[in-house]
Prior knowledge:
The complex is a heterodimer.
Chain A: E1 5-10, E2 24-29, H1 32-42, H2 46-50, E3 61-65, E4 68-69, E5 85-90
Parallel strand pairs in A: 1-5
Antiparallel strand pairs in A: 1-2, 3-4, 3-5
Chain B: E1 9-15, E2 18-24, E3 31-36, E4 41-47, E5 55-61, E6 65-71, E7 79-80, E8 97-103, E9 109-114, E10 117-121, E11 129-130, H1 132-135, E12 151-158, E13 161-170, E14 173-177, E15 185-186, E16 209-214, E17 221-226, E18 229-234, E19 241-242, E20 257-263, E21 271-276, E22 291-294, E23 302-304, E24 322-324, E25 332-335, E26 341-344, E27 352-355, E28 361-368
Antiparallel strand pairs in B: 1-2, 1-28, 2-3, 4-5, 5-6, 6-7, 8-9, 9-10, 10-11, 12-13, 13-14, 14-15, 16-17, 17-18, 18-19, 20-21, 21-22, 22-23, 24-25, 25-26, 26-27
Amino acid sequence: MAEGARVQVSVPHALREYTKGAENVTVKARTLAQAVQALEAMFPGIGYRLLDDQGRMRRYVVVLVNEDPVGDLDPAAVALRDGDTVHLLPSTAGG
Amino acid sequence: MADVKKGDTVVTVGTRKGLFLFHSRDRRRWASRGPYFAGDAVRHAILDPRDGKTIYAGITSEHWGAIVSRSTDFGGKWTEGKEGPRFPKESGLSITRIWQVQAGQDDDLYIGTEPAGLFRSTDRGNTWESVKGLNAYPEREKWNPGNGGLCLHTILPYPGDAKRMLVGISAAGVFATNDGGKSWRMYDKGVRYYGQKKTYAKEDLGTCVHKMVRDARDPAMVYMQNHAGMHRRKRGDDGWTIIEKGLPIAKSTLGTFGFPLAAHPHDAKTVYSVPLEGDYNRVVPNGAMAVYRTTNGGKQWDRLTRGLPQKNAYYTILRDGMRTDTNDPAGVYVGTLTGELYFSRNDGDSWALMADNLPGIQSVEAGIAGDQ
């Protein structure tokens, strides 16, 4: 596994077809952007589902690092530490 | 599940909550499959007419992005493209929805997106290239969205000439290319202004095109349902001509209001439309469902109602909600936002209900299954 903090990513139901059903995935990453890259390397195609064309987290994806919302921040600027959990959730919107 | 066989008519129905497929040998009894991509909006899906086997679906998840998937066994297995379409970073834009999927010439595949953009694939939807000439149009900042968003919803390749194409963007207008997409120009002269008798005096931005189709025999002739009325234009004409005799007129626009258009697959000058009451009430007039047909290029439109409900049918049909197949006589298919799917086996002379209780129908396409 690459260098970086060891973090757990909680995968939302809609994206578990990419992770072959895994609800939680462990990656090594220093930032949220690296965590998404690591996920993409492990599960091709999942990165497109998370990042928009400008490299930001998609608008209706809620991202928490532990309990802190970070979805509006530049993923490259969201630092991760050992033991962090990144929660990826669909926002409660739609119809 | 009944097998789809070569020669079957296949109808792809994109809905707000997934994709449904219908198929039939005799266009009397229909078998259905789906929903696929349940819960996601499928604004448009086509059976590729070049092989009669590959279905391309433009799927939009409001949470997880928009992507194209394909199937070569009528829904048994779906394959996502290796990469989804993306605007270049320097554009500052990000795709939210796929509005249209269109087969081009040779191996090309095109999609129209929201925000308005045109993307091309030459590898069956695995990877996508932004058509920069349009997507970075010099006056792009002046493109205003319509009620449904700033969307590129109509892609009209020119049969046999890969350099020519028309696209429709709500509510920026009609754009034309003659050089394979490197450069584009407006194609709106003659379009009626909203609520006025005067028309655009030059090719200009800002008309709200709803749908366009090419004439079956003369592809240089194009019919357009615009927000402000029904028009026709042939390449070489000075501008668009209004063609509304026999169509209901909306009080607000002073023209015929509606969204879908479909061209007969074989007969010249034959086009179908479904007028709505007006932009202030987007349902068919008086609760009576009717499809209108012209057989003379719009000089006269006739109202077709046999088999369609004439009371309490307050239907909305979206811009891709009607299409023809390529049989003879032609089949015509209409899907409503309340989930009814009607069809005709005889050029629209009479109609029957194929399915109801579907999720809101976004699009209907019809094709013929090829070799399996």
